[in-house]
Amino acid sequence: MKILIDARTFGTKPSGIGIYAYNFLCGILSDFEVILVTDLATSSEMQNLKKKDVRIIEYGKEVYRSSGVFDYFKFVRDILRQEQPELFWEPNILIPIKLSGFNGKSIITIHDMFPVTMPQYFGKKYSVYFKFMLKRTLKRTDLILYNSYETKKETEQYFPTAATVPSEVMYIIVPKIEYEGELRNDNYFLYVGNVEKRKGVDILIEAFDLYIQKGGTKNLIIAGKKREEDVDAALASLTTRYPDRVTYKGYVSDEEKTQLYACADTVLFQSRAEGFGICALEAMSFGKPVLASDLSIFQEIVGDTISYFPLAGGAQALCDAMLQEAKKPDLNSYETTMRQYFPETLVPRLVDLLKKIGKKN
Prior knowledge:
Number of strands: 13
Mean pLDDT: 94
Distance between the termini: 11 Å
Largest sheet: 7 strands, parallel
Helix content: 40-55%
């Protein structure tokens, strides 16, 4: 059975959605003939797939949120018409054009409803675009994969049509990390993720300033892509005032991220909203204490295995929690929780599901 996947989300510098798609892709390679379509294929993930002789078709130029997306999807449509796979999987929610001439089934993954529930972080134009395009996409979709029950609930609340489409909650794969190096405590808090307000980085910046003023002794390392000018400016101010206490790493490779986790004291996730929260599970893979905002999605994914602070309390609440320190992890509980997201748990479910829907053509 042939499946074509839009791999644009992990073509260059993958974040959460890209890693979601890549990890599942690696799991299904032996069960399907896989073809990838992407704008560019420069990431380490793409290089790994090339070594495995996965067929990758490149558009040839990087695509952003603009009219360029429509031209890119016309390219994808042309490939679908030529290849006629049984399945087309769009891991990035939206299919903005009608895939006329393609006779197979279409699958989408919905990761969150943030352009609807938190439009202030996306801009009015994109929020309107998202609502309009998702309504159109749902009419063209044969199967919805959700990354959590919370995402499914919110999607069906705002888009009742989604409840009429066959669906499955397919959690994110978090491969078990076999780290052979030394696990240390180098006395720093670590945040890994996009540097933006939705991720609460502005809260973290203010909280760490308070933490230092109150005598806190740990340092702070932030790693991730910059996304918003005002948050960038606040981070630059913090690093200027405390050059020996705050380090911004930018977007880091998997190898550097692994080393940062291995040596962290506590890993922080102060998000205002999360579709899943994969980084919390990554931190747990290293047996590290985790301190997160009290979002219901974290409760769904990791329960009471980690420490929480009340998001409503803002920077002061985070600062207080940082001064108190996160609770010592129960490694057995960590292991039990993480096992739900290992490839051997999730991949067979997805393979069976894809084969079932593909045979219905």
